[in-house]
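Next up, a specimen:

>
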Amino acid sequence: MDRRGTLVAGVATLTVAGTVGTAYVGTGWVRALVSHLPGRPNVLPAIRTWLYRPSVHALGLPEPSGPDPARTGATPTPASVRAPSPPKSALANVEPDELSKINARALQLELAHLPLADLLSTDERNDLRWMRAEENLARDVCLAFFVKWKKGPFAAIAATEATHGEAVRQLLARYDIADPAPGPEGASATDPTFGAMYRDLITTGSRSYVDALRTVATVEELDIRDLRERRSTREDVARVFQRLVEGSQVSLRTLLKEIERQGVAWVPTYLKAPELASIMGSTEAFALR
């Protein structure tokens, strides 16, 4: 059989296999078949796409795009649940703490499988708005101290708080609630709810590096307290808030250890000493005054 006959026979075989749904484009027998076709480096991607198309149309799925999962071993993410690309950020090159950040794409996938409440109460809607602005406050305070002092845990915590604010924004979008704090980094300075607090915190933390550490630790305390006071019976909201509490505990622990290394005492503002000791994992982890 000449080359043209080989190509026709190969395509016919793939047509039958694709019709009955037994062909998988990354399997060895397809590669073996294609290896006998002329111009195989260009033929293989085309056959993969052509073979996949009838199946995705039948299932109502989007056309394949991006790297071939069969080659990379990755699980493709449906376009409908992909997290949008974040805006350009001053924290773009800063890695948040792995134990305290929230992965936006993973959260979006998780929320998609949870029940959606028909209607949130006025208090529940206000709680989401409040926590969105408060997470942005924490981000902006840390970012300001990162710029001023150029050391310490401020950059990592600011990046972490950015992921926390995005988590609350996803809840707002899920329930069609307008984002009360859509502004860029630093917008807390003019926020109608937290603007005055932001300016006071910046003034206090600009006195010294230790004062900056104490200020951010106080903000993390406030965050934990407010999240706990706003517990929800909604599974999706409760899950996100619990993740935020756990992340803020990690950030607070980092801050208190750094304060201890500076040889100064810590005076809690919003949380009680036993609770802080529990967060640290030991009653001897740091000095409470």
